[in-house]
Amino acid sequence: MFQVKFCDYLRYENEKSVINRPHGSGDWLFLIFHKPMHLETAGKKGVTGENACILFSPSGRHIFSGAPEFLN
Questions:
Q1: When you count CB atoms within 10 A of the terminal residue's CB, does the N or C end of the chain come out lower?
Q2: Which one-letter DSSP state was computed for residue 36?
Q3: Is the pLDDT of residue 72 over 80?
Q4: Is residue 51 helix, strand or coil?
């Protein structure tokens, strides 16, 4: 069994906002980026396309920011 926690959606953040959780959030985290985002995974940096998605493991590092818009 699993539990789904609420996460806000379609919310604009400050374009300079950076999410940086070096040790993850303790939960599996599935995100859809409706706008391009700067993303770092496995030590590599890049920019996603529109409507990209990612699944972070509970202890996986989360680091992403707007490119330039930040739609969470």
A1: N
A2: -
A3: no
A4: coil
pLDDT tens digits, 41-51: 988 999 999 99
Ranges of beta strands (E only) in 1-72 are 12-13, 18-21, 29-33, 37-41, 44-47, 52-56, 62-66, 70-71
Q: How far apart are CA 24 and CA 67, in angstroms?
A: 22
Give the residue-averaged pLDDT of 12-18: 87
Instruction: Residue 32: name the closest of 14, 2, 56 by CA.
Output: 56
pLDDT band at residue 11 under the 50/70/90 scheme = confident
What is the pTM for the complete model shown?
Answer: 0.81
- Give the Cα separation of 50 and 58 in Å (integer): 24
Residue tagged 């391009």 (tokens)? 36
Q: Are strands 44-47 and 62-66 parallel, antiparallel or unpaired?
A: unpaired
